[in-house]
């Protein structure tokens, strides 16, 4: 029998995805640029071999798939994808579907989608989250492209996706770049979530002077409460893991320089392009950049020293730990609210009609930011899909109000203790600015009008569009 689907790229993600597809009873043809990888993959596939058609040439590969052929391309993002698509194209027929499942920039996806417009071929840009484990046993999948193309792959993708209470974490989210855009924002939120966790870890380690294992206990306890999520769960595991060589906690031996591949930065750029604040993601991207300036930081510590603030003191440790838990929840709400606000602006900008409740729904399982919390977001957006911001939905407004004091106390304690909490502080700044009906931009408007005659609107509706800054006013 012909294969139901094809997959190119048997690297970490591609081989796991292919095994997942085969295991769910879908016959799959596979191809990899380097033939040895294909052979090794097939040799290691065990009893799944019967569902796999290993191919060493593109001709053989294309012929093995049932038309219209859906072909997943799971290779290094960027130019490699364009090259692979060019190599594949001559062998394809009308209605065949090339599916880029890597971490593409959605602008590349839009370009690829448009380039194929008159070719009879179609294109899907598909975000896949969940890392290696997710790919193997159930990722969260964000699909963008033509709805007819989605219909051709819906069954296979539904069979391999993660399930939350039996509901598959995959859906069609809109035309062209919609899937990759949503995946990008997913990663941006992931950056913020991880940074906020790291800042709380910093307060526990450098403020309360707790050891890694003890901090692991704290995260473990939080994982049984409102913060229950994959990222908190792995934080506990990571903090409790020992280095096999020295026996010391492994985190204490890891260099404090974080890598980044671009999706966080893209989230911030797109947010800025649309004029939507995404301060949590911005803070997280900036924090990774500062982290990578290790030499400069060490040199600066020699010149400036650590802040001269004396000992970090809290009156009641148990109460402070409760505050940290609530502060983390609050700042997380801020980052997710911002991420969803960016998506709703993009939905208008690119005419995608992105379904917010569906996005929250397919993030509940499979992906890196999966959590109980996303189920609550799903409920909030289902009740009110067009709300301006998550934080004004009744459930989240309540949570923001309840955790407000804790976030303030934690950010203040960190500031007074000289500990950097840029992402937590950004959340507080965001809430305090967003909830204030009368801000301070009246002064900025006056300054802009003063030096650049930019004009301003008046609160009383009177139409004096310029201020009385004329001669005789300035000192
Ligand atoms: P790997 O490095 O494990 O594999 C890379 C694959 O790309 C190999 O199959 C390689 O083939 C192929 N490749 C590279 N360049 C070319 C080219 N010019 N033409 C054809 N094939 C090429 O990567 P991953 O599996 O980790 O990542 C694949 C994609 O998935 C990336 O876009 C990544 O961002 C994304 N992703 C990764 C996640 C992860 O957790 N790792 C999570 C979610 C998405 P060859 O064997 O011939 O070198």
Automatic annotation (TrEMBL):
SUPFAM superfamilies in alphabetical order: 6-phosphogluconate dehydrogenase C-terminal domain-like, NAD(P)-binding Rossmann-fold domains
SMART domains: 6PGD (SM01350)
Pfam families: 6PGD (PF00393), NAD_binding_2 (PF03446)
Catalytic activity: 6-phospho-D-gluconate + NADP(+) = D-ribulose 5-phosphate + CO2 + NADPH
EC number(s) reported in the record: 1.1.1.44
Domain of life per record: Bacteria
UniProt entry keywords in alphabetical sequence: Gluconate utilization, NADP, Oxidoreductase, Pentose shunt
Enzyme class: oxidoreductase
Domain 6-phosphogluconate dehydrogenase C-terminal: 179-470
Keyword Transmembrane helix: no
UniProt KW Oxidoreductase keyword: yes
One GO molecular-function entry: phosphogluconate dehydrogenase (decarboxylating) activity
InterPro entries per the UniProt record, alphabetical: 6-PGluconate_DH-like_C_sf, 6PGD_dom2, 6PGDH_C, 6PGDH_Gnd/GntZ, 6PGDH_NADP-bd, 6PGdom_BS, NAD(P)-bd_dom_sf, Pgluconate_DH
Family statement: Belongs to the 6-phosphogluconate dehydrogenase family.
Assembly: Homodimer.
Designated name of the protein: 6-phosphogluconate dehydrogenase, decarboxylating
Gene: gndA
